[in-house]
Amino acid sequence: MIKALIIGCGNIGALYDLETEALATYAKAFYRAGDIAFSVYDPKPAVARRMAQRYGVPCLSRWDEVPPGSLDLVVISAPTSTHAAYLEALWKAPPRLIICEKPVDTDLARLDRLEERYRASGARVLVNFHRRFQPRIADLRDRVQARAAQEPCIQVVVKYQRGFHNNASHAMDLLAFLFGKRFEPTDFRIGQAVFDEFPADPTLSAHCRWGGTSVQFTGLAGARFSHFEIELYFPTQAVFLRKGSDEVEFLSTPARQGAFHPALRSDEVWSGVLQNHMAAVVAQARRMLADPSMPDNFLEGTKISRNIVQITRELHP
Prior knowledge:
Helices cover 35% and strands 26% of the residues. The chain is α/β, with parallel strands linked by helices.
């Protein structure tokens, strides 16, 4: 039996799938797993009690009421501003694995301190960029890298809403995963920055270079709908990730005839790529618990946050 604790019973902790059949939160994923004995904590006791009653699990009055070092797994699904404090406290006597929601932090000095203390702690921290843990996304990575070995990716277009750090960071991590190289942008040029959702996280439209690839971020400032799409363009092929990456379309061009370049045609479409996506996150945690040598992605996560903070720090109103 895996012993676990969920710190934070908000949207990702427990609320997103409360009234649906989807599996999109830690609480429901742990409950359905069947072999995870978990407790819940939230600084709002009424919220924690509601989730405890829903799943028939203990509700803690303090997050460290059960010594973290006695646990296999601790999830930090609390607000970003609290991540650093929880992580540093957990690292004093760490559980076998920590899952931390992204972003890890939004302050360069705290990121420096977290990286230093993480290295000294011996802990493992899985940053939940959930797409990289989905089985079909792993299949997509193999397809993308096979295509990239044949011809270079010349253009990436990312469309998103609700904050560059909050949402575009998912695209940065996913691109790094798909192509097998860190997303480290250069020549970053901002076309528009709108503080439409978060006081310290603008929704940007911008352009940058990533090695030999041109990357365009289109931030849908003011959008009141969820939107996340990535388009990968190669000289004769393309891959479109739509509906938040739940749908993936592969396209190619027929042989050129005469002077005109042919249009792209659809060859294959995958659907349901992210169905019950939190189950795959739990499966990744289970693999890491079974294999202590399996690396985490904490420093990759802090690097993405560092790049974003450096890009946006001069934009605050």
